[in-house]
Design a protein that fits this description.
This protein is an alpha+beta fold and 206 residues long. It folds into 2 domains: 80 residues, no CATH class; 101 residues, 2-Layer Sandwich (Alpha-Beta Plaits), CATH 3.30.70. It has 5 helices and 5 strands; from the N terminus they run H-H-H-H-E-E-E-H-E-E.
């Protein structure tokens, strides 16, 4: 049967008479058309899935390229500024060393208490109490609180407070309390909490 006869056979087909459960008995031309349609659908589906996979791969490659570009720019910037970073690191190490030098070691704490006592007496105060309280461990340093009680005139107390800043070690002052005692008037009673610090190192940091 030639093409003309196949086309004529198609024209004579009544679609209502076709049985989907018996495709094998369909005319050859109609089966060929059905196969072409199925083949086209398969090609289209395969092409669509392949293109979608390529799009996802491309998107991933674009993101990776952007990430690598940013990393390259960052490393290029760091390389260009390496000498500056080294200089800053040296400066930070020197500064850190200077700060550590201002923190008393365990053996220097008694001398610090003597310095505070001497500073008070030099400014005319009567030191009633100066006690080292329990240490408070922080992440990178140990806090050493010192309770101070003294009596003196308003100006003597002010001079003592100002003089604490000239101590060779770092000392911070907290919880000021000044009261008037009729028995010692015109002197004032002052209680204050001084804190100094030392760096945690070795087993103390564990």
């Amino acid at each position: 049967m030639n093409l003309t006869e196949h086309l004529k056979a198609l024209n004579d087909i009544d679609l209502a008479d076709l049985d989907l459960d018996n495709i094998g008995n369909w005319p050859v031309a109609l089966k060929a058309i059905l196969l072409l349609i199925l083949y086209g659908l398969i090609l289209f589906a395969g092409f669509y899935l392949h293109v979608e996979a390529l799009k996802e791969t491309l998107a991933g490659n674009v993101q990776q390229e952007e990430k690598l570009r940013q990393e390259f720019e960052q490393k290029a910037f760091e390389a260009a500024n390496l000498d500056i970073y080294k200089a800053q690191l040296v400066e930070m190490e020197l500064r850190f060393g200077e700060l550590l030098a201002q923190l008393p070691s365990e053996t220097e704490v008694p001398s610090l208490l003597e310095d505070i006592t001497g500073k008070g007496e030099l400014n005319g105060l009567r030191i009633k109490r100066i006690d080292l309280l329990e240490e408070q461990a922080e992440a990178f340093f140990i806090e050493l609180p010192i309770a101070i009680e003294a009596a003196g005139s308003y100006h003597d107390l002010g001079a003592f407070i100002s003089g604490m800043a000239s101590l060779p070690r770092i000392v911070t002052l907290h919880d000021f309390k000044v009261t008037v005692d009729a028995k010692t008037s015109p002197l004032l009673d002052m209680s204050i909490l001084a804190k100094t610090y030392r760096y945690r190192e070795g087993k103390e940091s564990e």
